[in-house]
Amino acid sequence: HQNDILHQARSTFEAIHGNKTTYGLYNGDEKARHTVQFLFASLQTMRGHCRGFRPDEFDYIVVDESHHTYADTYLDVVNYWHPKFLLGITATPDRTDGQDIRRVFGMEIFFLPLDEALAQDLLTPVDYRMLSDEIQLSQVVETPRGRMSIDKLNRLIFIPKRDEEIAKIIAKHAKTFENPRTIIFCASVAHCDHLAKFVENSMPLHSRVPAIERSVRLEMFRQGMIKTVLTVDVFNEGIDIPQANVLVFLRSTASALIFLQQLGRGLRKSDGKDKVIALDFVGNCDRIRMVYNLWESTMKKREAFLQKLKEGGKGGKGTSCPLTPDYGSREPMTLNVNTIDFKEKIVKILEIIGPRNFYPTWQEASRAAIALGISTAEEYRREKKYQADPKLPCNPNLVYSDYPGDTIFFGRVKKSFYRSWQQASKKAKLLGAKNVEEYRNLCPKDPHLPRCPDTFYADFPGWYEFLGTDKYPTWQEASKAAQALGINSFDDYARRYKEDPRLPASPHAEYKDYPGLHTFLGLKKIYETLEEASKAVVALGIKSGAKYRIMSRTRSSFQHIQELEKG
Angle 340-352/285-310 helices, nearest 10 degrees? Predict the structure, then answer.
């Protein structure tokens, strides 16, 4: 899955920048190092190899799906680098575990939720069709609200369809398009493989398919050689398939985040694509509420956007893109059901699970959630603590159009970082941090210190001035310090220069009169002629290029050469 995303990103950059720029991958299969201008790397692979690069080797680093940054496997990698600019991209900045990625990347500079993007004509309109004729409302007795759980209602009301029947329904709706491209989200890998037997011209695409074969199938789908792919979670993040025009939901999820991620896979605009059909077979009350809230929020934002356009304003955040000619006459999201009977039943279901008398504002809902002791999205949604108050919605982000994000909603007020680097610098010095690593270990003691001040403050002066550890003014002084530490090779310097906060990461870039590594580290100068170097290599018994490269980087080998010459 990660390799698919890397190849996709590389192709996009190549299309924009052309062949005058060099590109490379850094993953389990390919490792381009120091030779390309754009490097596309997986965090998993880079975790074990990042120290093969200088911390300041890259000027600009982009972390995609940056909400994963606080995972144990990712944070060390992100913290290793010292780029001039660090950019985090994510559709979901609020993590369910309460960790705040803003400490790493700073506050959002741009945010556009899915409903707003639909309302502003930035995505393809979606024709959302809920398919579930077999609803047994007769089994539901009139009971006081709150006496019957949603899970029990789901068991009583909805009867699941068989895979063969689902395949026939999908084929029928897909015929709406001359060239349908369908993504089916299944409940599990086993379900994925089983349903594929009944869907014509289809292939499973999940984590158990070998990486190379998965890439081949993905490209076949893009090219139209196969019309349908069945997946579990491969398309939740990152993968871009603008050709997809039919989405099928067979997987139940209580997470609005995952639902919106999956829906978003098909909404990217593409030539000749005027709408996306979403077929939802997920028969449960939460999904009905989720879809209804999304539809309602999208339509409200569309009305507001149209009003701004009529008043001559620019409307919203995305209006730099031209609107389609028929924008005003079509709806960004239509909510369709397959029969009138089903529509009536949906209304009844919404009545059964409770009238929509949620708190009228997110502020009131927030106060109620905090009063219940709920402090994270995980507690609220996954542990379903919101059910303790019937006026709290399952997904407040879909109910309230001005939802401020989980951090504020659950009372974890966004960190008010120091306004200037000068203020932050004073506090950092009080903590006693002498280098970047120490700073990042100590900064949690002061919640107003950003984890990455070098990217948070536009006028950041550099770590030396920020921490009050000015670098050595001359290479000679830096040279003495490096030799005092016993540093005797390039690799050794890259690993250990932080032991002295006054040593620069790249002395060759810091000092205009830098004399070269061997002089800087007090090693014997390189032989002036090939003949002299050849004699030394023979004397050392070096018989391969690999051994030469290893020995040439150590001080001991040069000392050995000196001894041979003296002898």
Answer: 100
The CA-CA-CA angle for residues 561, 566, 567, to 5°, reads 95
d(CA 265, CA 239): 8
CA dihedral 532, 535, 540, 544 (to 10 degrees): 100
Residues 145 and 232 in one domain: yes
Question: What's the mean pLDDT in 16-35?
Answer: 89
Cα angle for residues 427, 429, 431 (degrees, 5° grid): 75
- The answer to whether residues 213 and 222 touch, using CB atoms and an 8 Å cutoff, is no
Q: Is 380 found in the same domain as 354?
A: no
Are 216 and 349 part of one and the same domain? yes
Query: Given strand 333-337, what is the order of strands in its sheet?
Result: 202-204, 228-231, 182-185, 246-249, 276-280, 126-130, 333-337
Q: Answer yes or no: pTM beyond 0.85.
A: no
Q: What is the pLDDT of residues 151-178, one digit of tens each?
A: 554 554 444 567 888 899 999 999 999 9
Residue 68 DSSP code: G
Tens of pLDDT, residue by residue over 256-284, are 777 888 888 889 898 889 999 999 887 66
Domain encompassing residue 545: 530-566
Split into its structural domains, the chain has a count of 4
**What is the distance between the alpha carbons of residues 230 and 475, in angstroms, rounded to a whole number?**
60
| Locus of tokens 């893109």 | 321
Question: How much is the average pLDDT of 10-31?
Answer: 90
Q: Which amino acid is at 55?
A: P
- Token pair in block for residue 420: 């200037």
Task: Compute CA 422 distance to the chain's CA centroid, rounded to the nearest angstrom.
Answer: 31
Amino acid in the structure at residue 551: M
Backbone dihedral angles phi then psi of residue 433, each to the nearest 5 degrees: -70, 130
Report the first-to-last Cα separation within the chain, whole angstroms: 60
Domain co-membership, 196 together with 278: yes
